[in-house]
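Lab notebook page, bench 4
Experiment: in silico fold of construct C2
Operator: M.H.
Input chain length: 266 residues
Purpose: comparison with the prior construct
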Amino acid sequence: MKIVLTRAKEDCKHLRKLVDARLKIECIDFPCIEIAPPKEGFALLDEVIRQNHLYDWVFFLSPKAADSFFGRLIELGGHFFHLSPRLKIAAIGRSTADYIREEIGFPVDFVPEQFNSNNFAKEFRSQFVDSTSLTKLQVILPRTEIADDQLIQSFENSLDIFSVPAYDTVLPICSEQATSNLLELFDSNQDLFLTFASSQTVRNFFHLTNQLDLNKYPKTKLFSIGPKTTQSILEIYGEGLQLIEARESSFDSIIDAIENSMVLSH
């Protein structure tokens, strides 16, 4: 019994610790995305950071977005206390909030009870948006270049959100040996837990494994971080798989789902 991690290489060390602490099963790293600077560089992000006193909130959707934002702040010669006291921080999920608090050492002012875009918008509006106000809250949204506009649309123009590229996710270079080892693992006919945390990882996995047909491996269970990722899995592989969607959009919730699956299988 093994778990296959398809997140970026930088994430795997942290994820292995989580898996080891809770599941105590072997992890196989097969990164299907690579983190890169924005295609157009950091000029937009740098300008927003310099003018952060003009904004009320910054929304972080991932640890990577927070790491890029604060990393650029340091590169520009500032430190954390050069952020405006006016600027508050919101994180869409537990792992992002924990990263900001524990790794960056900065407080988080809002985390939704449920970790997805729709609930984030609903809970934030109920707590912080005054429908009678003549001015809208000004929000910085650092994110990946390929992100969709679902979160922005969820706020239905109740905020002024400035979306700025903070990083890019690209197809990694994968060695033939790594691919061969993974394919041998699937052919070994053992129980495997295959985890996907984004639609891009699903598409890249399909490409990197030479269009591996997962339907041929009934002992493989797929775990998706959310509805969009699930939709991508179904579009590529069809509906015949053992596919479980995490209750919340976080890797901790994926581990919860794997734990429940392990209990039910015994």
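Observations: The chain is about 40% helix and 20% strand. The beta strands are 2-5, 26-29, 34-36, 57-60, 88-91, 138-144, 160-170, 192-196, 220-224, 242-245.
Next step: discuss at group meeting.
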